Amino acid sequence: MRFDSPEAIRAALLPEQIGDFEAALLAGGPDVLRCWRRIALMTEPDPAGQRQLFATVDEIRRTGRPRPGSMSWEEVKAALGL
Q1: 26-45: b or e for each residue (b if 16 or more CB lie within 10 Å)?
Q2: Region 18-26: what's the mean pLDDT?
Q3: C-alpha 60, offset from chain centre
Q4: Taking the chain, what is the end-to-end CA distance rounded to the nearest angstrom?
Q5: pTM above 0.90, yes or no
Q6: What is the pLDDT of residue 30?
Q7: Contacts 24+ apart (CB under 8 A), 73-82
Q8: 41 close to 2: Cβ distance less than 8 angstroms
């Protein structure tokens, strides 16, 4: 399995993700590595995309407004027929 150790996961993360990863490791729990393994799988192939995601989240948190053209979760579910 890819990213089967904390070291392998850490190596795939962005520098700005390392602090959160280290804190999660210290807090422990059975799902910590599984959760961070998923993040590593998304980060490694597209670090620029992950950085853009962080920037978008920061913008939304800072302004309190969704980005133009975005949809609420309810709108997404309706569009998918769920």
Answers
A1: eeeeeebbeebbebbeebbe
A2: 94
A3: 15
A4: 33
A5: no
A6: 74
A7: none
A8: yes
